[in-house]
Amino acid sequence: MGESDKNEIYLSSSPHYASPISTRHVMFAVVAALLPLALYGGWLFGLPALVTILASVVSCVAFEALFRKLTKQDIRVGDFSAVITGLLSPCSFLPRLPCG
Would 9 be classed as within a structural domain? Predict the structure, then answer.
């Protein structure tokens, strides 16, 4: 039987494409792109909007670290994924979100 007569499928785990750019680098670029939006929102809507953004980022990072600790995973808040969630969430909130 020749090499082309074999009906085999090659299976491998992902990722199938390797890139020199790390996930952390891509996430940091997204954070850098979102920062002007957050600063403009703070300038446009004032201190309450900045407090909402800051509280959202801090709580997202803290809850991700807490969840990873509870599930006995390595705590890796340095990949900026929780920061992105914390920056995107206030974009759907009211600028003067009532607290309490």
Answer: no
Number of compact structural domains in the chain = 1
* Three-class SS state of 33: helix
Domain of 32 in residue numbering reads as 21-92
* 48: in domain: yes
At 23-68, the pLDDT tens digits run 889 999 999 999 999 999 889 988 888 888 999 999 999 999 999 9
Tell me the pTM. 0.74
Question: 91 pLDDT exceeds 70?
Answer: yes
The answer to whether residue 6 is domain-embedded is: no
